Amino acid sequence: MSRSKRSRNNESTRTERLAQVRRAQARQERRRKIAIWGGTATALVLIAAVVAFSIIREQANQPTLAAVQTYQEQRGHVTTPVDYAQTPPAGGEHAPVWLNCGVYDQPVPNENAVHALEHGAVWITYRPDLPQTQIQTLRKTIPDTYAVLSPYPGLDSPVVASAWGKQLKLTGADDPRLPAFIRAYRQGPQTPEPGAACTGGTNGTTAP
User: What is the pLDDT of residue 193?
Assistant: First the structure.
């Protein structure tokens, strides 16, 4: 074999080996990228799963207002006592003067309290024999405005939360649904006269 032919063969061999090395390097690079992207995708899937699980768990732990009762209430001013369908009432005809929002140690007139509901207040009532510790919890729970707290004889639940056309029976002052009810219905979309006065009315001594 001539020298020139051997030289060409050697060159061809070197070229082929170089091509093999480059192909091997390319395969390694592809495997490396696949591993990187695969690891990244796995990490993203795991992160998404953790986030989804956290959201689902948080939603599952949120108090539900599914037990809220909804009523269609008539409006109008009357100067006589009203026979309400609910105890306590969650709306209906009422006194011309609204009850001032705040905390009361004695029962308040239904007709004045219902007028406060019409203005967007929530009315939190409790059994008169509710332990003082729970009453103090209720005092701390209710907002400073557009809320009424008072005892109410004859309740069939320890605590009842009412807004215009809405009512929820609660197991006690620490029922987690109470803050949720207040957030949903205080000055809520069901309010006939949102933003109307919650002061300047009566403290409960005015006759209906």
Answer: 96
